[in-house]
Amino acid sequence: MPACPLCDTPGGTILWQDDFCRVVLADEPDYPGFLRVILVAHVKEMSDLAPADRERLLQAVLASEAALREVVAPDKINLASLGNLVPHLHWHVIPRFADDPHFPNPVWGARQRDTPRTAPPDLAARLAAALRQRLGPARETE
Fold first, then answer.
1. Which of 31, 48, 87, 129 has the highest CB neighbour number within 10 Å of its CB?
2. Alpha-carbon span 130 to 15, nearest angstrom
């Protein structure tokens, strides 16, 4: 199996994790608060998971969405599970604003404007707290 960046690295700054998945803050300067929910196991598709595991992963995605709505109050949240370049099951949870660089296009689409958005200095801590409130205490993985 070729190297997998989501098996070999955290994929961002870990805000919450357990033995099943992790929520990370992605390094996306144009999109402060851009989260990824990454399954720990190297699985390619949602349909490869047992129904209870699908539900568990979606619970983490929805908790991430709710945390973003609380902390950054975006105009919209985009959810995406693509995996074309990295076929390791993960979800993008992206806060969108009407004046962000790509709106109304997807963040991977054509840039519409140059309007940088600055992240509050305590963004990671606030999101981690909001995630713990929704998902419970984070647990170290081995």
1. 31
2. 10
Backbone angles phi, psi at 70, to 5 degrees: -70, -45
Q: What is the dihedral of CA 25, 27, 32, 33, to 10 degrees?
A: -20
Q: How, if at all, do strands 21-25 and 13-17 pair? A: antiparallel
Four-CA torsion 16, 22, 27, 32, nearest 10 degrees = -50
Count of positions (residues) in the chain: 142
**Domains, in order of start, for the chain:** 5-135 (3.30.428.10)
pLDDT (tens digit, 9 = 90+) per residue, 44-91? Answer: 999 999 999 999 999 999 999 999 999 999 999 999 999 888 999 999
Specify whether the CB–CB gap between 5 and 86 falls below 8 A: yes
CA separation for the pair 97, 13 (Å, rounded): 22
CA–CA separation, 105 and 4 (whole Å): 28
